Amino acid sequence: MSATNQTKPLIAKGVSFGQLTRRKDGAKDFQFVIDICTAQAERGLRRAEAAREKVGLAGFAGVLGPLKFSSLDQVDNLKTLQEIVVALEDK
Question: What is the pTM for the complete model shown?
Fold first, then answer.
């Protein structure tokens, strides 16, 4: 894992989970968390797609294969998506 990839979170800059503590409405808190996770996933998918373009299908398959995935559509959590993005960007 390269140093530059470690400092690039999937979440967009300027969004803070600390904002949850300043909110009073639990439903809005829940929607806020959903919005943050959605933004993280969208950004991660864009980064993965861009990295896939650079490494080609063979490199892409080389990263997904050991994880038992054949496509990004099978990734069901942000941690795994981030691991894939970092591996692709490091190639």
Answer: 0.67
